[in-house]
Design brief:
The complex is a heterotrimer of chains A (295), B (616) and C (430). By secondary structure, chain A is an all-alpha fold. In chain A, 73% of the residues lie in helices and 3% in strands. Chain A is built from 13 helices and 2 strands; from the N terminus they run ααααββααααααααα. Chain A has helices at 2-32, 39-56, 61-88, 93-115, 142-164, 166-176, 178-183, 188-209, 211-214, 222-234, 240-260, 263-266, 269-280; strands at 132-135, 138-141. In chain A, α1 (2-32) packs antiparallel against α11 (240-260) and α3 runs antiparallel to α4. Chain A is globular. Chain B has 3 domains: 56-324, Orthogonal Bundle (ABC transporter involved in vitamin B12 uptake, BtuC); 366-443 and 534-616, P-loop containing nucleotide triphosphate hydrolases (Rossmann fold, 3-Layer(aba) Sandwich), CATH 3.40.50; 453-528, no CATH class. In chain B, 56% of the residues lie in helices and 11% in strands. Chain B has 26 helices and 14 strands. In chain B, α5 (100-118) packs antiparallel against α12 (220-246). Chain B is elongated. Chain B starts with 10 loop residues before the first helix and ends with a helix. Chain C is α/β, with parallel strands linked by helices and 430 residues long. Chain C is built from 13 helices and 12 strands. In chain C, α5 links the parallel β3 (144-146) and β4 (168-169). In chain C, α3 packs parallel to α12 (352-371) and α4 (126-139) packs parallel to α5. In chain C, 58% of the residues are buried. Classes of the chains: A mainly alpha (295), B alpha/beta (616), C alpha/beta (430). Chains in contact: A-B, A-C, B-C.
């Protein structure tokens, strides 16, 4: 029994990462119909920045994170204005995807030139990432607990912003109907940029809390990004809670299949299961299918 | 001049529409690209590796034009076909000790079959989901390679044998480049042939509007699967070359990242053109080559160039060049237009003399029996037990207030709505429960209330799409542009031109439909339906948004043509005057049920109708 | 008007094709000729090795220097993963190469010639490695390819090296097929195959811990070296001890599932064939999940960074290496570290990756010196094969090469992390 709980917990911890990145992706896609391929790399850079402020500029842990988040937000603001904004008026999906791929390549190389390829340890106060509590046979890592709490807090804050603030209402309006939202006098460019920033901050939090787990190395968020993408699609890509649920589900799916499936199929099985799910429910698990073909 | 039948020109010549030729503009562009590479290969043999990679990526790019550029299926699983080619090549050369003459057909064949399989998800899902579904396929594909050790050598990989053709061994280097160029030429030729043939047209149509493509009778499901099969087969040829360039095949090389790069390359180049495949491949292969001296910053340069390029050429490099070329030719054309006169066409020419004879018919068609048609959305019964019969060859009007269920009834007849009950019989053939395109092929033609046209395609192509079922050549013949393909294409062009002429669209034949005014777009929609030679034509508010005079004029044309092909017409229209004017008979729908059925006079006097509809 | 233009272009295109086609014909015949001559020369090398000195004397009068060699310069090429998730290894190797170059050049070069090298990134992608190889050989005209990293990548590029008569020197690549002198007469290495390392590990394990109750779990990369790693262990222990076999992918983010499987199988010893970052992460997760076993890391895990990243958790972990620990205390190692730090290395870059490249550099210098004024591929190979009992200041045991053995070193060294540093336990041979 403890065995199951342990596996479920491990899956959940991976799932938190997928869920947060999934959320960040869905947010931008839902309001602006843009798929941000640079999300993983941007999240990774946030992690590096937090480390850099703390370890190389001798900032206290919390202040370093704050600085890193500010830089992430400001950087995203500039990136959105310079690269994505000029393409939005074309109304075409593909150039923006290619643009985000270009941004990804560019940022990844900036990061490599700045910090080099050697992996670094992201130190947390009291080295609590090395503390394990034993509850019966169940082993609980202290940092994993922090990850869980942070995920919960982030989701709550995002939930609050979307439901209670003007930005959130604007995002919702755009997600529902772009033209109607424009008619209502909501400025598309304002909503879009703050959605980007919010999405980057969610990614940044993910990058920072997972840095002690994965070590700070180049590309360390890329696989998380791909899994987050899968999670978002599993959740329907148009539902924020769906993206989160998809992430958690994917984490569990991985933990359990890799544990019990034959070694040969273990790596591919989660993706195969998602694939089959999509064949049965083409619009994801958490969004309703449209009733009939629009004519 | 055209009103004198004796010296009458055909419409095609009058409008200056070029006839399909063996080679077209696209080909020349493709050949130019190949020539460029050939020159580079000869002059700079020290770059042969990069040149090889460029050729391979151009071939893969061309194969992606089929899947993505034409059919619009965003795939991240293309790498699996490349991998199939690579590993088949490794096995054939080492285990069987056979050369290219065996490798290429087998690689093509196997990848073709694989494509048939992989195409299936595309029937269920679209856009992002298809990207993920194909991503999953690629992901699983690599795992299969890792585990299928006999075939792939597992993680350790497999060496590739000698480069041979019919037992003659060739050295790699310049000879391999030459072989690759020949294969590239063949691939480009085949893809170019599709672009100018019915299959390419059909792919373009389903990309831009699947609904309309079905309505015109195109087998959309099969076309989608076919694009994966053909694209896959051609990509595998690239894979064979890749194997011989790398000489060593390992599974981890063929992951999703390769898929992303080939898609990226094609988009950068321009996804609708063969030259785009070449330019895209050149971009991803030569930028790193040229930045070797500043190796450390290669990634920065690459990313930066990508950003700048996307900003200045969001439609790809080819798109940018075409935009520039358009600017130049437009400037020239507007000078000419100033003095040129628009030749107006006399509309009194009888249809028989308009070269449209092949489509004419003297036997009235379009006897449609609808019994107990019913459609519900959720709890609402939009159509609630409607029964009527339309006699062959007549014009019937269908009126009713908004929400009366008119369009839903249309959709039930054409199959565009799921779960419609009731029985539909057209000319004695039951069409209920059949897929949309089968109903269309059985003779149901339709237009759309919200104009379901194919953006990006010109007016002539819309007419040709409608004519698709009357074009008699197979897809294999099309691949190699055999003589009868050209003959059939030319015939279709003649017919299309005449039809456009009849509907007064001839002068706009090469305009993209999205650039036309609304009234003309409506006509294009009608032309597409008419060209399909339907037995019964369902027109959904053809006059909406048009001035009455223009609408009447158009309806007259439609009626003339319908008479010519002896088709029946069922027309939804709010403009009662118009309907009364053109119809032999009028059906009135209200709240999903027929409340009146009779001649225009009868119906307009019917009190129930006046109360429910006309009165308000 | 327009169609005429197209026709004109087409005619030009066809003419161009014909013209270039004719020109190309000559190209290919000369290409194949040079190819055949190169294969002849390579076959003659193995026979010439014994009489190297006499031949060198005969050639003294008119010496045709090898490609990439001038009177004052020797040029090398190196294909490295400078981007992607192996970038750290590439950076370390390049640093060690720079140290070697500066040491040689500051001492006046070899036989009056300075050493230079060009690095190109391959991101561990074989396609790029092959392109890089062609760039080195045909455009930069390098003498040899030096210290490249990667088995899969080298497998793709090696045929090109061999055909163009280009030596492949001291790569960090461990596939068994490379060491066959008949197939690859220009391949020199100080790095025994992955197969030999696990064989050495198996022998040490049985010698020191017996076989009673020993259950071994192997964790290998799902790539070129992985299967040979497993085979080496099976060949040394008969395969009975091998209880659980797991693989990891280059892009894995967690080893949790594999560790849980090891716990289930009651493993006493885990051998992890991986790099330092991954090994540290493995130790971290093993601790989180409670895997109580002895941990054995492969060559790539032995670096200062493993200890830096894993901290306390690395204490007691074993390492199976082909070379002394980079952090050890021996004259050669001290010199290496001094030079590395002087060149700006970080603590984390003191690793097997950089030490192997550095040691290869020592042998390279000796080979170039022995080859003499007249540096040709033949004289170079002969010089290499003549090296006996070459001292590296304790980094490796004295190295020996011969005409049928281009692998100078077949040490398997067992290390353990004690008090935050890698300590040597046993120096053995496979």
């Amino acid at each position: 029994m403890v065995d199951y709980i342990q596996i479920a917990w491990q899956g959940l911890v991976s799932g938190f990462a997928y869920a947060l990145i999934g959320l960040a992706l869905v947010m931008v896609y839902k309001t602006a119909r843009i798929l941000n391929f640079a999300a993983g790399t941007m999240a990774g850079i946030s992690g590096f920045l937090a480390h850099w402020w703390a370890a190389e500029q001798d900032m206290p842990f919390g202040v370093a994170i704050l600085f890193a988040m500010i830089m992430t937000g400001a950087g995203t603001y500039v990136i959105e204005r310079l690269t994505v904004r000029p393409l939005v008026k074309l109304g075409d999906f593909l150039p923006i995807v290619i643009m985000t791929l270009g941004v990804e390549e560019f940022l990844a190389n900036v990061s490599l030139l700045w910090w080099g390829g050697t992996a670094r340890r992201y130190r947390v106060p009291g080295d609590i990432d090395r503390i394990n509590y034993l509850i019966g046979d169940f082993r609980l890592n202290a940092w994993h607990l922090v990850v869980a709490i942070t995920t919960f807090l982030t989701l709550s804050i995002v939930g609050y912003i979307i439901n209670q603030t003007e930005l959130g209402l604007g995002m919702k309006a755009f997600a529902e109907d772009q033209d109607a939202a424009k008619l209502m006098g909501i400025k598309e460019s304002t909503v879009s940029i703050w959605t980007w920033v919010l999405s980057a901050l969610v990614g940044g939090v993910t990058g920072i809390v997972f840095a002690p787990v994965l070590f700070l190395q180049q590309d360390y968020m890329n696989i998380i990004f791909i899994k987050g993408f899968v999670a978002a699609i599993l959740g329907g890509f148009l539902s924020l809670s769906g993206g989160v649920a998809g992430g958690l589900l994917l984490g569990e799916l991985e933990a359990f299949t890799i544990k019990w499936a034959p070694r040969e199929f273990a790596a591919a099985l989660p993706v195969v299961i998602v694939f089959i799910v999509l064949l049965i429910r083409p619009h994801g698990l958490f969004t309703r299918e449209k009733g009939h073909e629009r004519v | 001049m055209s009103d004198n039948p004796e010296i009458q020109e055909n419409a095609l010549q009058r409008a200056g529409i070029p006839l399909p030729k063996f080679l077209k503009k696209n080909h020349y562009f493709g050949f130019l690209g190949i020539l460029l590479i050939y020159l580079l290969a000869g002059t700079y043999s020290q770059y042969s590796q990069t040149i090889m990679n460029t050729i391979i990526f151009a071939i893969i790019g061309a194969s992606l034009i089929v899947v993505f550029g034409m059919a619009g299926q965003l795939t991240l699983g293309h790498t699996i076909f490349v991998a199939a080619g690579v590993f088949l090549s490794a096995n054939i050369t080492t285990v069987w000790s056979r050369g290219l003459e065996t490798e290429i057909p087998i690689a093509f064949g196997v990848a073709f079959l694989l494509g048939l399989l992989i195409g299936f998800p595309s029937l269920r899902v679209n856009e992002l989901y298809l990207a993920l579904a194909t991503f999953a396929v690629a992901f699983v594909g690599v795992q299969v390679l890792f585990e299928w050790k006999q075939f792939s050598g597992g993680g350790s990989g497999k060496p590739v044998g000698k480069l041979e053709l019919f037992g003659y061994e060739f050295s790699r280097g310049p000879t391999l480049v030459r072989i690759a160029l020949i294969l590239m030429l063949i691939t480009f030729w085949i893809v170019g042939n599709y672009q100018d043939g019915r299959t390419g047209r059909a792919w373009n149509a389903l990309r831009t509007s699947e609904t309309a493509a079905r309505a015109v009778g195109l087998p959309v499901a099969w076309l989608k699967i076919l694009c994966f099969a053909i694209g896959g087969g051609l990509a595998a040829i690239g894979g064979v070359l890749y194997a011989h360039t790398l000489r060593f095949a390992i599974p981890e090389n063929y992951g999703v990242s390769l898929s992303i790069i080939v898609v990226l390359a094609l988009i950068i180049g321009g996804k609708h053109r063969l030259m785009g495949a070449v330019l895209g491949a050149a971009f991803v292969k030569w930028l790193p080559e040229l930045s070797r001296d500043v190796q450390e910053y290669e990634g920065l340069i690459y990313g930066g160039t990508l950003i700048i390029l996307t900003l200045i050429a969001p439609d790809g490099l080819v798109g940018m060049f075409e935009w520039v070329a358009d600017r130049i030719t437009n400037a020239r054309r507007s000078e000419k237009d100033g003095k040129g006169d628009q030749t107006s066409k006399a509309s009194s020419v009888p249809l028989e003399s308009l070269f449209l004879a092949p489509l004419s018919s003297s036997e009235p068609k379009g006897n449609l029996i609808v019994s107990n048609a019913a459609v519900s959305f959720g709890g609402v019964r939009a159509v609630n037990g409607v029964s009527f019969e339309i006699p062959a060859g007549g014009v019937t009007g269908l009126i009713g207030s908004n929400g009366a269920g008119k369009t839903t009834l249309f959709n039930a007849i054409t199959g565009h709505v799921k779960g419609a009950e009731g029985k539909f019989v057209l000319d004695g053939i039951e069409i209920s429960q059949k897929p949309i395109h089968t109903r269309a092929l059985a003779g149901v033609g339709r237009t759309f209330q919200n104009l379901n046209l194919h953006d990006d395609l010109n007016v002539l192509e819309h007419a040709l799409l409608g004519l698709d079922r009357n074009i008699g050549y197979g897809r294999i013949a099309e691949s190699f542009r055999l003589p009868w393909v050209l003959r059939e294409e030319r015939n279709a062009h003649y017919l299309a031109a005449e039809l456009l002429d009849h509907m007064d669209l001839l002068e706009y034949w090469d305009e993209k439909v999205e650039d036309l005014p609304y009234g003309l777009q409506k006509r294009v929609d009608v032309v597409r339906a008419l060209a399909a030679n339907p037995s019964i034509l369902l027109l959904d508010e053809p006059a909406a948004g048009l001035p009455t005079a223009e609408a009447l004029e158009m309806m007259k044309k439609v009626q003339e043509y319908a008479n010519h092909i002896s088709a029946g017409v069922l027309i939804i229209e709010h403009n009662v005057e118009l309907v009364a004017d053109v119809s032999d008979r009028i059906l009135v729908l209200d709240a999903g049920q027929t409340i009146a059925d009779g001649t225009p006079e009868e119906v307009t006097r019917n009190e129930q109708v006046i109360a429910a509809y006309l009165g308000t | 008007m327009k169609s005429k233009l197209w026709k004109l272009l087409a005619i030009f295109a066809v003419l161009g094709l014909v013209a270039v086609g004719c020109g190309d014909d000559d190209d290919s015949s000369s290409g194949s000729a040079s190819e055949s001559s190169s294969s002849e020369s390579s076959s003659s090398e193995s026979s010439s090795s014994e009489s190297a000195s006499s031949e060198a004397a005969a050639e003294e009068e008119e010496c045709e220097l090898a490609r990439g060699v001038t009177d004052d310069k020797i040029l090398f090429g190196s294909s490295q993963p400078m981007t992607g998730n192996l970038a750290a290894l590439g950076e370390q190797a390049v640093l060690a190469m720079e140290v070697t170059r500066d040491r040689i050049n500051d001492g006046g070069g070899v036989n009056g010639r300075m050493i230079e090298f060009i690095v190109q990134d391959d991101a561990y992608n074989p396609e790029k490695t092959v392109s890089n190889a062609q760039y080195f050989i045909e455009q930069e005209n390098v003498f040899a390819i030096w210290a490249s990293i990667g088995s899969a990548t080298l497998k793709a590029a090696l045929p090109l090296h061999d055909e163009s008569n280009t030596p492949s020197l001291f790569p960090w690549a461990q596939d068994l097929s490379f060491y066959d002198v008949n197939n690859h007469p220009l391949f020199f290495s100080v790095n025994p195959p992955a197969y030999a390392q696990t064989k050495g590990f198996g022998n040490y394990l049985v010698d020191n811990f017996g076989t009673d109750g020993i259950k071994v779990g192997l964790m290998t990369i799902n790539s070129v070296d992985g299967e040979q790693t497993v085979q080496g262990f099976k060949d040394s222990t008969g395969g009975d001890l091998l209880t659980d076999e797991q693989t990891w992918e280059r892009d894995s983010t967690t080893y949790g599932p594999q560790i849980l499987s090891f716990i289930d199988s009651g493993i006493t010893d885990v051998y992890v064939g991986t790099g330092d970052t991954q090994f540290a992460q493995f130790l971290l997760e093993a601790d989180q999940l409670g895997l109580d076993a002895r941990f054995w890391g492969s060559t790539g895990t032995i670096s200062a960074n493993t200890i830096e990243l894993a901290g306390e958790l690395s204490e007691g972990a074993y390492g199976v290496n082909v070379i002394s620990s980079a952090t050890g205390d021996k004259p050669g190692l001290n010199e290496y570290r001094e030079a590395m730090f002087a060149a700006g290395a970080e603590e984390a870059q003191i690793s097997t990756a950089s030490l192997l490249a550095y040691t290869g550099g020592l042998v390279l210098e000796e080979m170039l010196t022995l080859a003499g004024e007249c540096l040709t591929v033949e004289s170079f190979v002969a010089a290499g094969e003549s090296i006996k009992n070459f001292e590296t200041g304790g980094i490796m045991r004295p190295l020996n090469f011969s005409a049928d053995n281009h692998l100078g070193n077949n040490d398997v060294i067992i290390l353990q992390v004690q008090d935050g540093a890698w300590e040597e336990l046993v120096v053995g041979q496979e």
